[in-house]
Structures are given as C-alpha cells and as structure tokens.
Amino acid sequence: MTDKGLVKPVGELALNDVAAGTATQNQVLLGEDDGMPNFAMRRFVMGEGGGMPLHTNLVEHEQYVLSGRGRVRIGDETHEVKANDAVYIPAGVAHSYDVVEAPFAFLCVVPNAPDRIDLVEAD
Known about the structure:
Blueprint: E1 16-17, E2 22-30, E3 39-57, E4 61-74, E5 77-82, E6 86-89, E7 95-111, E8 117-119
Antiparallel strand pairs: 1-2, 2-3, 3-7, 3-8, 4-5, 4-6, 4-7
C-alpha cells in the first residue's frame, strides 16, 4: 500500500486487447501493482463494431462513461449510455456491451478481490 499518493501518466500505459471482447482494449490505471489496497481503476476502449458478450464477474463494477455511446445489458434490461453516465453492475449479474458510437470508452472501478469472467449463453 502506498501512503504517499501516486500520479501516473496514462499515455505511457499499454492498451491491452481483451480476449473475450471484440475491438476492445483496456488499461489498468491504478491497481494492486501500484499498491492500491482496496480498488482497481481500469479504462476500457471499444472501437467500431466492438463490445463484450454476455458474461458475469465475481465482483461488482462501477463505471463512468468517458466518450461515445454504447448499449449495456445488465440482467434483463438494456440501457443506452453516453459520456457522463454512471453505471453500476452488481457482482454475479450477467452483463454485456455493444458499441453504438465509437470510440466507446469508460472507467471501471472494481474491488481488489478474486475475479473471474464467465461467458453466458445469450437467450
């Protein structure tokens, strides 16, 4: 854990392909490797035609949309979200993303806890 604070130039961080996604990349902005004790902050960027299939995670997601527009399915409801919208996805609830206007980018804050992505068969 760091007790001095931390500033990182995000432009120097690698964008990594998300294996389960289409035209989807992410960056870990702050996480356990930085000494964050409770949460990880990530940035996701989805390009034209991009998205993530229906899946669950073991941890909750708290998100803030930075740019673009997307459709986010949470359980049985689908929401169209845009820049300056906040999104909450409870742990264990099936969710998916589809790009409406690229680049669709958002911050995602999750607890530093064991997590796993499980793909769900679409109904």
